[in-house]
Amino acid sequence: MKERLEELKQEALEKVSKSENVQSLKDVRVEYLGKKGPITEVLRGMGKLSKEERPVIGQLANEVRESIAAAIDTKQTRLEDEELEKQLEAESIDVTLPGRPVRVGGPHLLTSIVEEIEDLFIGMGFEIKEGPEVETDYYNFEALNLPKGHPARDMQDSFYITEELLLRTHTSPVQARTMGQKDGNEPVKMICPGKVYRRDTDDATHSHQFTQLEGLLVDKHVRMSDLKGVLNAFAKQMFGAERDIRLRPSFFPFTEPSVEMDISCKVCEGKGCSVCKGTGWIEILGAGMVHPNVLEMAGYDPKEYSGFAFGMGPERIAMLKYGVDDIRNFYTNDIRFLEQYHKA
Amino acid sequence: MLVSSNWLQELIDISSYSPEELAEIITKTGIEVESVTPVAEGVSGVVVGYVESCVQHPNADKLSLCQVDVGEETLQIVCGAPNIAEGQQVAVAKPGAVLPGNFKIKKTKLRGEESNGMICSLQELGIDEKDVPKEFADGIFVFPEDVKAGADALSLLNLDDKIIELGLTPNRSDALSMAGVAYEVAAAIDGDYELQEEDVPYSNKAAGDLISVEVEDKQANPYYGAFIIKDIKVGASPLWMRNRLTAAGIRPINNVVDITNYVLLEYGQPLHAFDYDRFDSDKVVTRRAKDGEMITTLDNQKRELKNHHLVITNGDEAHAIAGVMGGAKSEVQEDTKTLILEAAYFDPSVVRQASKDHGLRSESSNRFEKGVDPNRVERAGKRACELLAKYAGGTVLSGAVSVDQLDRSEKTVSIKTSVINDRLGTSITNEEIADILRRLQFTYEQSGEHFDVKIPTRRGDIELFEDMLEEVARIFGYDNLPYTLPQGSSQAGGLTLEQQLKRKVKSYFEGAGLHETITYSLTPKERSQMLVSPEIKRQAQSPVGLAMPMSEDHSHLRLSMLPELLQSLSYNVARKQKDLSYYEVGTVFVSNEEQVTKQPKEILRASGALTGTWISHAWQQEKKEVDFYVVKGIVEGLSAQLDLSFTYEKTKLPHMHPGRTALVKSGDKEIGFIGQVHPKLQKELGLKDTYVFDLNAEELFAQYTKEEAFQAIPRYPSVSRDIALVVDEQITSAAIAHTISEAGAPLVKDVQVFDVYQGDHLPEGKKSLAFNLLYLDPHRTLKDQEVEEAHDKILTAVKDEHEAELRG
Ligand SMILES: [Zn+2]
C-alpha cells in the first residue's frame, strides 16, 4: 500500500506540472483528491491492515494528499496570475494622453503677500486688527497728531464724503481705535492690513486705492532697538537672510523719532545699480516711536508707556519682490497676471 | 531743495568727502538725498574767448565769421547766433572739446570757411532752458564781466558743480536754506559752520524819512521791516551769483531780483522789493484784504481777494499778497531808482491758505508756510542791503522801519540720559550726549545726566523731549542701535475666528477653481447700485457718494462687488481670455441715511462671477460650459465647508436672468443670491453666459458654530432605496425632497436627486424626478419590513402633498 501511495503521488505531481491551464488542474484535483479518487480508495482498504500499520499508512496517505493539494494550489496561483497578466495587458492605455483637467484657482498676489506678513507677525505674538474703510476725520487725522490745518494733511489728499467722514488714507486709525479700547493700561501688539484711498490719478506708480499694512506695539519700556530688531527679523524673513537693513531719519506726524527702513539692494548686493538708483539701498517702509501726543490721545501716559509703529505698502513689496512694474496690474484682474502669482 | 556742492564748500569744509559720500552721510543722519547730479556731465575743453573781430560770412546771410582770442591762439570760428558781436567775451568749445550728450567738437568748414570750434549758448553747455537768463535765451552766452581769455569757462560758469537734491520732509524746513543745510552738514560730519554777520554800509539818512509801517493784524504779521535803498542801478548780477541761482533752479533776472532770491536761498527768508516810486506812498500798511478787492500780480493775473488774505498796501491799494506774490504795479523795472525792501514774518497758515486759494506755490510761499526762523528775518533784510550796495550801486538808508511783535525766544527742552537710553535701547554716556549737542550747536546747561537744551529758533520743529530724542538718536547713528526684541508682556498672537473663517472660505473657493480678485471699492454711481442683493437693498437708502470725486468712474462706494467683477471678466474677454472664474471677498458700504452723516455699515461679502468653459477634456469629448449648477455646486460646497445648510428659492432680480436666479437662505436668514446675469447685460459687457453669486460672508460667519463633539461613525449598515416620481413640472425638487424627509423621519437620513427627466413617455406638463433615499438607524440593523413601511408612508405623503405618482 505504501508503494501504491508513493506511486500515486509521483503520478499526480507529474500531471500537475504538465497542466497548462486552470481547467486541467481542476481535473487533476478531482481525479486524485475527489471522493472517488485513488487515495480515498487506498484509505478504504485500510481495514485489511494490522493495528500497527493502520496509523502509519493513514499518516502517509494524508501526507500524500497534502503535498498533491499544495502542488495544485501553487500551480493554480501561478496560472491565475499569468492569465490575469495577459488579460490586463490587453487593457493597456496610452499613458501619454492628457488627463482630465482639474480647475484650480488661487489667491491674489496681494493676499499672498499680506498673509505671509500676517503669519510672520503672528509668530512674534501680534494680533490682526481691522477697522472701517470709511473713517471719521477724528480717527484718520486728529487722533494721529494731525489736527485740522496741519501741513502734513496735504501729503495725503483725501476722498471726503462729508466734512467729518472720509475714506481712510492709511490704516493708522485702526491703531488709534485699538489703543483707545485699552483704557491706557494694557499693552497693544497688533498689525492691521487693509485698503486705503488717496486722491491720486491712477498711473504706473499711483493708485487711488491701495493696500497698507501697519504694526503697533505699545507697552512699558518699548525701545527703539526693539523696533530695529523686529524690522530686521521681518526683512530677513521676507526678503532673504542675506539682506541688511538700515534705518534713516524721516518724518511722520504720528511717530517721533521717525525713520525709514531700507534693505540692501538684492540686484547689486549693495554696490549701487539702476534699481536702487545707485545707492545700494531700497526703501521698504516707514516706522518710528509712537508720538507722545498719539499715546496721550489714546489714554496712555507717555511717561510710562512707549511704543513703536511701522507701516508698509504690500503693493510696493510685491513690486520689489516679483518685479511687477505697474501698480494698476493689481486691480485690473487680468487672468494672465493673477495666474502667474498663484505660487507666490 | 537743490544744493550746489561748490557753494556748500564755501560755507563749510567738505573737501574730504566726494558729493556722493556726503550724500550718504546726510541721508543717514538726517535728510534724504534724492540724487547727486553733475551740472554738465562729461563736458570739457570750453574756455573763455575774446571776440576780436566779427564780420558777415561771405557766403551766408545768417552766419558770422569771427576771430576769437582763446589765450594761446586766435581761432577763426563761424557763428550763427544773432547776438554775436565784436568785443564780447564768450564761451568757446575748442576743437577736441566735448559738450553734453558726448558731442565732440571738430575742425570743420562751413559754407567754404574754416571754423575751428564753437561759440556756445548756455543750453549747449547743458544748462536747463528754464534757468537760462532771458537775454541769452536765443543766442550765445556773453560773460557779463571781465574775464581772462583762455580761462576755464566751465568753472567760471559753475559747470563743474554737482547738485545734491534733498528730499525734505515737512518738519525740516530749516534746510530750505544754504545756512540750514550747512548747520545740518556740520552736525553730520562734525564740522564748523556759522552764519556770518551782515555788514551793511548805512548812509546817514534815515529810512524813516521816506517810509512808515503800519500793521493791522499783528497775529498774522508779527514782524514787518522795510528797508529803503536809493541810487539803485538795475543791471546784471555778478556771474557767481547767477551761477548759484542757476544751480538752485532759479533763473537769473536782474541784480535786484537776483539778490532777493539769493538771500532767500542763503538764509531761507523770502524778501520782496517794491519800486518805491511806483509804490506811490510813504507808508506801508499790511492788513487783511476786503472781500472782492482786486490785485494784478507779477505774473499779470488779475486776482480777487478774500477777507482772510493778508495784503501789503500803500495805505490804499494792495501791492502784494503777503508771502505769496508781489503786485505788477510796483514791480522793479530797469529804471527803478529806489527800493522798499520787505523783510517780514507772516503767519504760516495765512500764507498757506492764500497760496492754496490762488493756486500759487512759490519759493517764498513754500518757506513762509513752513515757518521761517524769526531770528533771521531782519538779518536777511540786512544781507540783501549789503549785496544791493555792493552789486546794484545802492545806498542803504539807516535803520529798518519796522513793526515788531515777533517772539524770538529760544525754547528749552529738558532731556535725561537714562530716559534716552531707556527709549533707544542704548547705553549712551553723558559725555556723548554733550558731544552730540555741541555738534548740533545747541547750547545747554548740564547737571549730571540732566540737560536743559536751548533750541535755536532755526529748528522750529523741536519742541518735545521726543524731538530731542530723535536729534540725539540720528547723530548717534541708527546704525549704532542694537538689535533687540520686545521684552514686555507676551501674548499669543493669532487670528480671530472671523479671520480664520475668511481664510477658510478663500482657500475653499481657490480649491474649487476660482481665482481671487481685488476690485475698486469706488465705482460709477450707476454701477454702485447694480446687482445689489435684496437684503442689502432693503437696508441701503442709496449708495454713499464722495463729496468731490476725481472722476465719475470712481464716485460712489459699492453696494455689491458684482458689477466690478463683471467689468474684470469683460476686460479679460476683450483680451481673448474667455474661460474665467473669479471671486472676491470684500466689503460693501451700506448707509440707511438719505444724506450720509454716520459711517456706513461695512458688510463683508463673498461674491463670484464665472463665464466660459468650466471643464474641457478634448480627446474624451467632454466639455462643460459654466451653468447655474456649476455655480450652485460651488455655493453648496461652501455651505458644507461651514457646516451650514442653504436653501434656494427662485426669484426675479434686476439685471438677472428672470428664470435662472435664486435667493439663497441660510437658516431663515436671507444671505444673498445666485444666478445668471441677464442676457442683455451680458451682451453689453461682451460676455457669454455668465453666472454669479453674492453672499453675506459676515452672516455666514455669525451662523458658524465650531464643531462641538465628534459624531460617531454609524456602526450599522444603511439601506439605500431609489424612487422615481412623476409630478407637475412646476414642482421643485426641493419641495419633494422636503416632503420625503419629513414623512420618512427619523429613518431617512439623506435624500438626493439623481435624475430629472421630461419628454417622451411622459404626459405634457409633467416631469419625472428620481431620488435616492438613505435609511439608517444608528443603534441597530434595519429590518426590510421597517424600510418598506417607511417607504410606503413616503409615497402616500408625496401623493397627498404633490400629487406625485410612482413612475411605472
Ligand atoms: Zn542696486
TrEMBL record, chain A:
Subcellular location, record wording: Cytoplasm
Classification via NCBIfam families: pheS (TIGR00468)
PROSITE patterns, per database record: AA_TRNA_LIGASE_II
Subunit organization: Tetramer of two alpha and two beta subunits.
Coiled-coil positions: none
Cofactor note: Binds 2 magnesium ions per tetramer.
GO cellular component: cytoplasm
Family to which the UniProt record says this protein belongs: Belongs to the class-II aminoacyl-tRNA synthetase family. Phe-tRNA synthetase alpha subunit type 1 subfamily.
Cofactors demanded by this protein: Mg(2+)
Domain (Aminoacyl-transfer RNA synthetases class-II family profile): residue spans on this chain: 109-320
MF terms in GO: ATP binding; catalytic activity, acting on a protein; magnesium ion binding; phenylalanine-tRNA ligase activity; transferase activity; tRNA binding
Biological-process GO terms, alphabetical: phenylalanyl-tRNA aminoacylation
Enzyme class: ligase
PANTHER family reported for this sequence: PHENYLALANINE--TRNA LIGASE, MITOCHONDRIAL, PHENYLALANYL-TRNA SYNTHETASE
UniProt keyword list: Aminoacyl-tRNA synthetase, ATP-binding, Cytoplasm, Ligase, Magnesium, Metal-binding, Nucleotide-binding, Protein biosynthesis
Enzymatic reactions: tRNA(Phe) + L-phenylalanine + ATP = L-phenylalanyl-tRNA(Phe) + AMP + diphosphate + H(+)
Protein name: Phenylalanine--tRNA ligase alpha subunit
Gene encoding the protein: pheS
Domain of life the protein comes from: Bacteria
Residues given in the record as Mg(2+) binding sites: E256
E.C. designation(s): 6.1.1.20
UniProtKB/TrEMBL annotation, chain B:
Highest classification ranks of the organism: Bacteria, Bacillati, Bacillota, Bacilli, Bacillales
GO CC list: phenylalanine-tRNA ligase complex
Required cofactor names: Mg(2+)
Keywords: Aminoacyl-tRNA synthetase, ATP-binding, Cytoplasm, Ligase, Magnesium, Metal-binding, Nucleotide-binding, Protein biosynthesis, RNA-binding, tRNA-binding
Top-rank lineage group of the source organism: Bacteria
Catalysed reactions, as listed in the record: tRNA(Phe) + L-phenylalanine + ATP = L-phenylalanyl-tRNA(Phe) + AMP + diphosphate + H(+)
Organism expressing this protein natively: Halobacillus alkaliphilus
Biological process, per Gene Ontology: phenylalanyl-tRNA aminoacylation
Note accompanying the cofactor annotation: Binds 2 magnesium ions per tetramer.
Chain ranges passing through the membrane: none
Stated family: Belongs to the phenylalanyl-tRNA synthetase beta subunit family. Type 1 subfamily.
SMART domains, alphabetized: B3_4, B5, FDX-ACB
NCBIfam families assigned to the protein according to its UniProt record, in alphabetical order: pheT_bact, YtpR
Protein name: Phenylalanine--tRNA ligase beta subunit
Residues that bind Mg(2+): D461, D467, E470, E471
Domain B5: 408-483
All residue ranges annotated as the TRNA-binding domain in the record: 40-154
Domain FDX-ACB residues, every copy: 714-807
Quaternary organization: Tetramer of two alpha and two beta subunits.
Gene: pheT
MF terms in GO: ATP binding; catalytic activity, acting on a protein; magnesium ion binding; phenylalanine-tRNA ligase activity; transferase activity; tRNA binding
InterPro entries: aa-tRNA-synth_II/BPL/LPL (IPR045864), B3/B4_tRNA-bd (IPR005146), DNA-bd_dom_put_sf (IPR009061), Fdx_antiC-bd (IPR005121), Fdx_antiC-bd_sf (IPR036690), NA-bd_OB-fold (IPR012340), Phe-tRNA-ligase_IIc_bsu (IPR045060), Phe-tRNA-ligase_IIc_bsu_bact (IPR004532)
Documented EC number(s): 6.1.1.20
Subcellular locations according to the entry: Cytoplasm
HAMAP family referenced in this protein's UniProt entry, alphabetically: Phe_tRNA_synth_beta1 (MF_00283)
